[in-house]
């Protein structure tokens, strides 16, 4: 890097970032590539200048935070330059009366949730796994078991300060919800994996902490999603998940409790809200399915499980309609997958594990891809490949067959025509 970077480029970047360019020797491994230099702008103005330099030199860059969700998306195209958002951190404003907060995207989710919880507010971002930053949660838009109660990540975003690929600083949305005509541009950047702009700060809407919360579990058999959908539609349901019992011992041991004889699936539900209403729904579930109390940290354990990966295996997330969820589950289990299912709004995470004799066998991987394609076709599902064996990286577009590919190409051309931001990461390897 020291030899390939021009003196002019290095000088401009250092001036733009406000600090010397951080060189890595040996190179820093990140998401399958090796970064030899990383800029760490401390505010929006510095971020703007950094992106201007990159755009002027047509130098693509990896946009990174803590790296806790770097597994999502396609492999980055080779680049030696990174731009970190970790210094864009801190809670700028917290209105404890209205339940809104303005925060830098480099702020950790744990720190923000702890701060708001002390004032009686929940951060309604239930991102899978542990750790991570606000920026990573917004860029990936991943949801955990509480998606039923919290809604999609986009619902928590009131406004964003974003820097585009050419360095232009834009602000969209505000700290209050307004009735407006036209598209909410803040929603465009959420879930785009940092390929359309680099988020700097966000206004987030919080939720009041519930008076009571209870977590219960029950064993299921037969058409399990019919029972799960009935639970999902109770008034106080905040989290609802159906899990293959065989996943618990390897990926969520804190759930404990051995499986019921002859029953493959377990339902875990969280009810939250006013005490009497929560107790009514909990009593109903106990009467209907023989539910019993679950460990207090069951929802967190399920959230951790969403990022679990077998040493040699494939993890895929499917989105379909609730009416197609049972069909998707049946096809996946018939094809050898083990599933974790959020029945409403019908998100299935499926794990395929290679046998000891299958190792790096392309035939096994082709069989997995065939099952994925079958589910997409017959259950009308969108499939996103979240994890592949190391030897199979890049074998297939992680978002293969996405119906929004044409639109995303137009957006990428409009917002990042020089391909500066996270090249290759998103739909269609854009």
Characterise this structure.
29% of the residues lie in helices and 26% in strands. The chain has 4 domains: 7-86 and 417-429, Uridine Diphospho-n-acetylenolpyruvylglucosamine Reductase, domain 2; 91-208, Uridine Diphospho-n-acetylenolpyruvylglucosamine Reductase, domain 3 (2-Layer Sandwich), CATH 3.30.465; 212-299, Alpha-Beta Plaits (2-Layer Sandwich); 313-392, Alpha-Beta Plaits (2-Layer Sandwich). Helix 1 packs antiparallel against helix 2 and helix 11 runs antiparallel to helix 12. With 430 residues, the protein is an alpha+beta fold. The longest helix has 17 residues, at 362-378. It has helices at 7-17, 44-56, 109-117, 134-140, 147-150, 185-189, 224-232, 245-251, 275-289, 298-305, 325-334, 362-378, 405-415, and strands at residues 22-30, 33-39, 62-64, 81-84, 91-95, 100-104, 121-122, 157-163, 169-173, 198-205, 207-208, 212-220, 237-244, 265-273, 292-293, 313-319, 338-342, 347-353, 382-387. The chain is built from 13 helices and 19 strands. The model has no long low-confidence stretch (mean pLDDT 89). Strands 15-12-14-13-17-18-16-19 form an 8-stranded antiparallel β-sheet, sandwiched between helices. The protein has a 5-stranded antiparallel β-sheet with strand order 5-6-10-8-9. The radius of gyration is 22 Å and the shape is globular.
